[in-house]
Design goal:
NADH Oxidase; four-stranded antiparallel β-sheet; 34% helix; 9 helices; 328 residues; alpha+beta
Length: 328
């Protein structure tokens, strides 16, 4: 073993800290990171104790979260000057780890994603504030589409009729979720948890903004916001959907990587985002999210995009709680 390629303790902590800043449903942070046996790579494991089975019975959202964490690890690895070759589900779809990063080689380019995304990892937050009445420039939309495509996922920015259809399905799903006592109990459970993050309690999951036109229940946990009389949410928000041709665990992991790549690139350009997750939590509303004109596709999530405040940071688990010690 050559010492030049071995990850130091500081390297591992640096990577785990970046991976742990990914978004997740209920801010559940369902990941663990483990060094490979040769200390030249990092494994991404699902943490079953942090699953949310009522809202996510198939583990789809969990795997999207893991994919987002994996992409953050790739960005952090580039910042360390390492090439991040990754493999999804190396031991099969039902086995751990869910992904492995090989970091033994030096980076071939300092900006493998076109721009430096590292500073955006900590700056990226879910924003459920009103957005300005300002369109996303077409050139940036094209860049976001390209970013998602690079991860094997299709990003589609919706036209007016698509936005209205998705908002109607979101409202329908929101009402059904609110009436589900099992889901409500699960949400209450997560609201009571306090991860080890320097004593800061886990923020409440924003149910939705009762006074807004757009439900604001997002992918990461924040207290519900109510619009003040001076606040007016956009009547017709800019929405985009991420979809895949197939619907297995590898597709969910790719979706998470695409989501985070798109979100980090948006953050670099001052564009804010949040996730409308209600309609994808229920099988029949999720199926109706897709546009039949686009052919066979599985919608994985809905992004709301716009210009406005960045949103607050969610509490994070301590690095020691998500990074396993090297194995002897």
């Amino acid at each position: 073993m050559t010492t030049e390629t071995v990850l130091s303790t500081a390297d591992l902590q640096f990577l785990a800290r970046a991976g742990g800043l990914a978004p997740s449903l209920h801010n559940s942070q369902p990941w663990r990171f483990r060094p490979t046996g040769d200390l030249r790579g990092l494994e991404v494991h699902a943490d079953p104790d942090r699953a949310v089975p009522a809202a996510d019975p198939d583990g789809r959202a969990l795997h999207i979260s893991l994919g987002a964490a994996l992409f953050n690890l790739r960005v952090a690895a580039a910042h360390l000057g390492r090439e991040a070759a990754h493999q999804l589900l190396p031991a099969g779809p039902d086995a751990q780890p869910r992904a492995v990063l090989d970091l033994a080689e030096p980076a071939r380019t300092p900006t493998p994603f076109g721009v430096d995304l590292y500073t955006a990892v900590a700056a990226r937050h879910s924003s459920r504030h009103p957005f300005a009445n300002r369109d996303v420039p077409e050139a940036l939309v094209a860049d976001l589409i390209t970013a998602a495509r690079a991860e094997g996922v299709t990003l589609t920015v919706l036209e007016e009729d698509g936005v209205r259809r998705v908002l109607a399905l979101t409202a329908e799903a929101e009402a059904r979720i609110a009436a589900d006592v099992t889901r409500e109990a699960e949400t209450s459970h997560w609201l009571r948890l306090e991860p080890s993050c320097d004593g800061i309690p886990l923020a409440a999951l924003g149910d939705h903004d009762r006074d807004a036109r757009v439900p604001m229940r997002g992918f990461t946990g924040h207290p519900p916001r109510r619009a003040t009389p001076a606040e007016r949410f956009e009547a017709l928000p800019q929405l985009a959907v991420l979809s895949t041709r197939f619907d297995g665990r590898a597709d969910w992991l790719r979706t998470g990587q695409a989501m985070e790549r798109v979100w980090l690139l948006a953050t670099v350009h001052g564009l804010r985002a949040s996730v409308l997750h209600q309609a994808v939590e229920i099988p029949d509303t999720r199926w109706r999210l897709r546009d039949p004109a686009d052919g066979p596709a599985h919608v994985q999530l809905v992004l709301r995009l716009g210009y406005g405040p960045s949103g607050a940071a969610s509490p994070r688990r301590a690095v020691a709680d998500v990074l396993d010690a090297p194995q002897d």
